[in-house]
Amino acid sequence: QKAAQNLEPLVPIKFCISSRTDSGVHALCNSAHLDIQRPPGKPAFNEKQLIRCLNYHLRHEPIRILKAQRVSSSFHARFSALSRTYIYRLLTGCAHYSQIPVFERDLCWAPTGPSLDVPAMQDAAQFLLGTHDFSTFRSLNSRTAFQPPVRTILQADIQPSPGFLSHHYENRRLEFWELQFKSRSFLYRQVRRMTGALVAVGQGKLTPHQIKELLERKDSLAFPSSAMAPPSGLFLKSVEY
């Protein structure tokens, strides 16, 4: 938003972002809309000009504009979204945090202990699919306490994934996994709670059926406090319109 003010708009520019993330969470791609009112006699920016100008003023920040396009006046980056997809990156095979590759630091979660029982996690993920009251899988604060807790999970997959430069340390027997969740919208910290619960299943601390029981409790206080996944492994992958 600060970079956009350098475009010398007639009135201050306000960004409307499609999704907010917790501190420490990453975004491979996010979406926003903005209105730019130029002074009389100044032509409207085209898409290439807008991308180039914004990225120039963002050159020292860890953010880049990848694409810009004109939309109708009724479009809203948040409310027009059909779905949002998040991925959570897991690393197994680390007995201690010091074994996490330095290039992956703060970009994945490496739960300690033996390898995860991925088939059990995949069985448990099936209970999350569909429309449910996800009260147990949300964190409450003053802003979110009055949000409707019903959400529809369209996708909950667990797949092997390559790590960054992982072919250079194959001898270390590290394995990367990605959990992918898709829904029109998510509750506060819902993805981190779902991920943490599935990891607990993979560690043998919960059974797949206990995920179903947690859903049926419909109580955020029923969620095991030790099962919250940290923010570092979570990425907003895409917003679909």
From TrEMBL:
It catalyses: uridine(38/39/40) in tRNA = pseudouridine(38/39/40) in tRNA. CDD domains: PseudoU_synth_EcTruA. Keywords: Isomerase, tRNA processing. The keyword Membrane does not apply. The active site is at 22 (nucleophile). GO terms for molecular function: RNA binding; tRNA pseudouridine(38-40) synthase activity. This is tRNA pseudouridine synthase. It comes from Hemiprocne comata. The lineage of its organism: Eukaryota, Metazoa, Chordata, Craniata, Vertebrata.
